[in-house]
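This entry is passed on directly below:
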Amino acid sequence: MLFNMELNSEDIRQKYNKEASSYDWRLNVLETLTGMKKIRRELLAKASGNALAVAIGTGRDLLFYPRECTVTGIDLSEEMLRIAETNASRLHLHPALMKMDAESLTFLDDSFDTVVSTLALCTFPHPEKALQEMRRVCRPDGKVLLLEHGKSSLPKLARLQGALDDQWCKRSGCHLNRKPDELVRTAGFEILSDRKSFFGILHSIVAKP
């Protein structure tokens, strides 16, 4: 899968360091428009055991993990991790937070019962590598939970996404027209459910290695 506009991991790190302070405000607007908060809550309720949050960002998901989960969160951006730590402290939660590249996880194989990634496949320079790493560190009887956006199921909207993709990626660091379900299958997962919403743009995916 080829894209005209690509940012490398360092580009992404710098961009999210710069935008970390405004990230939650912008996501609040998006979640209000799309109903994403409810989708996020319902998806994260399926997490269990030892959970890995890939590209944890500012820690928006932390509120929705079942309390019995032990959460480890990784992200490329130091500033996003700093805000995640502040948000976790406010919620009286204690996740293990560390800087790490999603495309090259340092965890051993089969380390986690649940692997979670929300709104991140759009930003990874090589999403297939990140998904393969998620599959590697997830236990064979575990699950991967993904909340992602991608190419709309409406042809006119999909064409608009394609036309805007390069400039949007340059500005925001994320692609508008990737296909999360196809990426997940190509990485070797079995998709157990894929709930689509908001004109087919949002995907709430439960998969197993």
Notes: The radius of gyration is 16 Å. The first strand starts at residue 50 and ends at 54.
